Task: inverse folding
């Protein structure tokens, strides 16, 4: 499916390079993050290619439907979702800014069933309305972070799936520290608290580009066992995300300052 739109990708690649040149801070953050993670700086080039692919996908999502979605993406590990549904307590997808994160929930709604997606509303109301309409076009329900709790509990109670991005830095007031690529990272504990309270199955889910197949793969990894201990469970979820990133290191959004919040008394890393 991706081949016929090489012109679109070439244009998106130019946009990605323009962004890199106009906002050099993003490139510096990516280089610093790769250094902090102990990964080669050469991976940064792949990050911009991944961003370009994501641009194409988002631009084309208005044309993706149940009839052609399989030309864009296929499942891997769908049995984990099937088993979780059979458990009857809902599914919490732990997802991250890896590959085509907008396509993952969008395509799942077309290939299996609609889900609820928790997002942070964009600052520009007009842009937010446009993006929300695009995200919900396949049947998904979009929940703003601030008012999401009621919708999440209702969805899980109805044995539905809820996707939440859990790979970003949070402030000291909102987070706890766990290890991520060998360094302390501040993470919101809300996700695992939801799992503990509802008994929902936690599944890492993400859509990554396969250069061999020239399409995306929507991967569902094995469920992350929950203990009810907030710190232990948060660490387990972040371990699962780290494994996914290590498997596809050039497709994660390294331009985000993941280790920005530091424990009290520790020097900034950026």
Result:
């Amino acid at each position: 499916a991706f081949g016929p739109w090489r012109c679109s990708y070439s244009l998106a690649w130019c946009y990605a390079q323009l962004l890199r040149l106009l906002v050099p801070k993003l490139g510096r953050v990516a280089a610093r993050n790769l250094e902090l993670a102990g990964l080669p700086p050469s991976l940064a080039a792949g990050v911009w290619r991944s961003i370009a692919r994501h641009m194409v996908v988002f631009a084309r999502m208005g044309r993706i439907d149940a009839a052609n979605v399989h030309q864009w993406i296929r499942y891997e590990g769908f049995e984990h979702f099937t088993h979780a549904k059979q458990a009857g307590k809902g599914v919490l997808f732990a997802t991250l800014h890896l590959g085509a994160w907008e396509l993952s929930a969008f395509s799942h709604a077309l290939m299996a069933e609609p889900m609820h997606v928790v997002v942070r509303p964009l600052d520009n109301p007009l842009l937010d309305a446009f993006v929300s309409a695009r995200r919900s076009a396949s049947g998904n329900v979009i929940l703003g972070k601030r008012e999401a709790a009621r919708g999440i509990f209702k969805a899980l109670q109805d044995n539905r799936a809820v996707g939440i991005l859990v790979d970003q830095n949070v402030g000291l007031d909102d987070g706890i520290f766990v290890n991520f690529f060998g360094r302390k990272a501040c993470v919101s504990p809300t996700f695992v608290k939801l799992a503990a309270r509802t008994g929902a199955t936690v599944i890492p889910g993400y859509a990554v580009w396969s250069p061999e197949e020239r399409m995306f793969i929507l991967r569902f990894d094995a469920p992350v066992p929950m203990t009810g201990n907030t710190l232990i469970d948060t660490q387990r979820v972040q371990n699962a995300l780290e494994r996914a990133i290590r498997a596809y290191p050039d497709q994660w959004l390294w331009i985000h300052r993941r280790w920005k919040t530091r424990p009290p008394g520790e020097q900034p890393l950026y």
User: Anything to note?
Assistant: The chain has a mean pLDDT of 95. The two ends are 40 Å apart (CA to CA). The chain is about 45% helix and 20% strand. The first strand starts at residue 73 and ends at 76.
